[in-house]
Amino acid sequence: xxxxxxxxxxxxxxxxxxxxxxxxxxxxxxxxxxxxxxxxxxxxxxxxxxxxxxxxxxxxxxxxxxxxxxxxxxxxxxxxxxxxxxxxxxxxxxxxxxxxxxxxxxxxxxxxxxxxxxxxxxxxxxxxxxxxxxxxxxxxxxxxxxxxxxxxxxxxxxxxxxxxxxxxxxxxxxxxxxxxxxxxxxxxxxxxxxxxxxxxxxxxxxxxxxxxxxxxxxxxxxxxxxxxxxxxxxxxxxxxxxxxxxxxxxxxxxxxxxxxxxxxxxxxxxxxxxxxxxxxxxxxxxxxxxxxxxxxxxxxxxxxxxxxxxxxxxxxxxxxxx
Length: 322
What we know:
Elements: H1 2-25, E1 31-35, H2 42-58, E2 62-66, H3 73-80, E3 88-93, H4 94-103, E4 115-124, E5 126-131, H5 139-148, E6 154-157, H6 163-175, E7 180-183, H7 187-195, E8 201-205, H8 210-214, E9 218-223, H9 238-241, E10 251-256, H10 261-275, H11 278-286, E11 289-291, H12 296-317
Parallel strand pairs: 1-2, 1-3, 6-7, 6-8
Antiparallel strand pairs: 3-10, 4-10, 4-11, 5-8, 5-9
Helix pairs in contact: 2-10, 4-12, 6-12
């Protein structure tokens, strides 16, 4: 019995030593960042921007590999099943990490059990938009107008179970109104139909409507992050008017579960440092994003909060996807 216990202890010590040694030598080969979306999209461009900085600071090539499909879950599943050695990293997004688990009948991974959060890279506010002919120049005025026209106002989204769809439903829930959700395939047709008078309101990414806002073709009333966005600092956060309202279309970085803590902490530190670079800041702001770079613990807390929030909204609004 004593011999077995000694053997077990020595095995555990050997594994711990091997893990510690590998973490100390990290990185000694190229790192892959998996983009779960289509190539040349905003996620890949942001991942490449961060990857260049990490390559400079870590002294190893950082490769961006796109594995799109199934609303980001194919790439996420690939990372979840990869070796937990710090050489395969997911460039994550709120969609596959927090929204899809709330609406899908089944998921190929568990966000909280199969990944090690590294950091939230950037926060993406959505902007609440109304048509110019809608007589509402503030959120309280819009709520009053929506209540007076119950069931008549449409809220366009970029697709079912998207952040923009959930924003519409949360607005209904917290505002006590009943707008009608109209899903589209992307933001461009939403904007087209808003300008054409078919859609009354929408929640869209800031970068996608900058031109229309500058030309006064659409009216912006608020942003959906907890605090005001530096991109549109004069707009209130909906949280100021409807406490607890938050729809954060964030991007982050996650490693497979079991990745050594030292490696996770190193990647967080270097990513946070990269986000402070002026050229990275400029590129983020151009895309309507705010740099974050928080700790693994803070990102984990954000994930837990998002999973609970979107599960509640999905249940109330009866949102389900196959």
